[in-house]
Design goal:
Blueprint (H helix, E strand, L loop, with lengths): L1 H24 L8 H24 L5 H9 L8 H25 L28 H22 L9 H20 L5 H11 L1 H5 L3 H21 L7
Helix pairs in contact: 1-2, 1-4, 1-7, 2-6, 3-4, 3-5, 3-9, 4-7, 5-6, 5-9, 7-9
Length: 236
């Protein structure tokens, strides 16, 4: 149960900090944190929780990461569903508190692309560009695959594990810098689900992609690291 609580609180912090920064602070006139600030916020949530509770649960905070680590031989299949449930519940609890805070100012809105930090595709978003379903799928799949490679490499027994949280947090920051203009960045089905549940409509209709693409990418990344990159004990 401690592992599940760690995943709940870790995913809660990721959504509250990452999506919260996007909802409250990104567009504040003159002092808003913008794209760079939101990207850093997501990275910092993972970095801080990796050191806070990563030693308890492994610090997944993301159903796609759990899938990828299972494929990579780092995580038992029997724990997959409980971890995913804890992650989705943690993300949804965070989204609920974000909703209450935002609604306290009468500012909650379901209108507009990316409302309440939801993910999207095939809709004019930032810079008035509309990325197709295929482009969004390829983005989410590719970035999640590399995220898994970074996670597995940074936490490998041959790596310096003391710096794993920093590498993983910075990788997530980079991922957001690349893909916020494309899909508002998911690479995390729990994060996408929590926001879509409150917005509904198109966000829920498009949610399937932000489960399928990240999980597909994580499986690819886990397989690549395990079969092509992972150093064996008998290797020099």
């Amino acid at each position: 149960m401690k592992k599940l609580f760690a995943e709940f609180f870790g995913t809660f912090w990721l959504v509250f900090g990452g999506c919260g920064s996007a909802v409250f602070a990104a567009g504040v006139p003159n002092i808003g944190i913008g794209l760079l600030g939101v990207a850093l916020a997501f990275g910092l949530t993972v970095l801080t929780m990796a050191y806070a509770v990563g030693h308890i649960s492994g610090g997944h905070f993301n159903p796609a990461v759990s899938f990828g680590l299972m494929v990579g031989g780092r995580f038992p299949a029997k724990d997959l569903i409980p971890y995913i449930i804890a992650q989705v519940l943690g993300a949804t609890a965070a989204a609920g508190i974000l909703y209450l805070i935002l609604n306290g100012a009468g500012a909650f809105s379901r209108e507009g692309v990316g409302a309440f930090a939801t993910n999207f595709y095939d809709s004019p978003g930032y810079n008035n560009r509309s990325y197709s379903l295929m482009a969004a799928f390829l983005t989410e799949m590719t970035l999640t695959a590399f995220f898994l490679i970074v996670i597995m490499g940074a936490t490998d027994k041959f790596a310096n594990g003391k710096f794993a949280g920093i590498a993983i947090g910075l990788a997530l920051t980079l991922i957001h810098l690349i893909s916020i203009p494309i899909t508002n960045t998911s690479v995390n089905p729990a994060r996408s689900t929590s926001q879509a549940l409150f917005v509904g409509g198109m966000a829920l209709k498009q949610l399937w992609l932000f489960w399928v693409a990240p999980i597909a990418g994580s499986i690819i990344g886990g397989f690549i690291y395990r079969t092509l990159l992972q150093k064996q004990d008998n290797e020099g």
